[in-house]
Amino acid sequence: MPDIDTRTLSQDIAFDLLSNARRRFVLRRLQEASEPIELGDLAGDLAAAETGVPVDELTAQQRKRTYVSLYQTHIPKMVEAGVIEYDRDAGTVSATERVDELASYFHTPPRMPLWAVAYGGLSLFGIAVYLLVALLNPDFVDPIQIGLLFFVAFSALSLVHYQYVTRGRGTDGLVPFEEGE
Q1: Contact predicate 77/15, CB 8 Å
Q2: HEC string for 85-151
Q3: Which one is the CATH code of 11-106: 3.30.310, 1.10.10, 3.90.105, 1.20.120?
Q4: Domains of the chain, residue spans
Q5: Which residue, of 53, 78, 177, 180, is most buried by count of CB atoms within 10 Å of its CB?
Q6: Tens of pLDDT along 9-46?
């Protein structure tokens, strides 16, 4: 196995790796997999995706053409870049942490104005309700209770925001297989 460079991938290497739909497919599948994938299975899945035919209906020629392309061209290129590992004995392919580095080229940062509006709106509404209760001074509610209610609401919004940012959003952060995905 080659020594993997611990520096980040250059943009030239990253763009070269990502310029091919077959490599993007392999990277995406490996990102989504929890275990190494057999190269034959990967080739079958790719051939099915490219032809629009279910895996069990592929011809031997379709599978072989895709397998040879992966085995001779794409897998060695990605192994050399340190993006994937190929176990020749087991015939399996697995992702390295560098796959996420490549996926970062497709990351779209969350639009902060959405969160700014949510926080600002909740704050303004909370202040308005608090002032209304304080001015009207109703017997059934205390301004402290209103303050605590909006403190809890603000904390809940903060937790939702934190989960949104740390856990990701759908396929954002995954290597797309198709253009525009």
Answers
A1: no
A2: EEECCCCEEEECCHHHHHHHHHCCCCCHHHHHHHHHHHHHHHHHHHHHHHHHCCCCCCHHHHHHHHH
A3: 1.10.10
A4: 11-106, 112-167
A5: 78
A6: 888 898 899 899 999 999 999 988 889 999 999 999 99
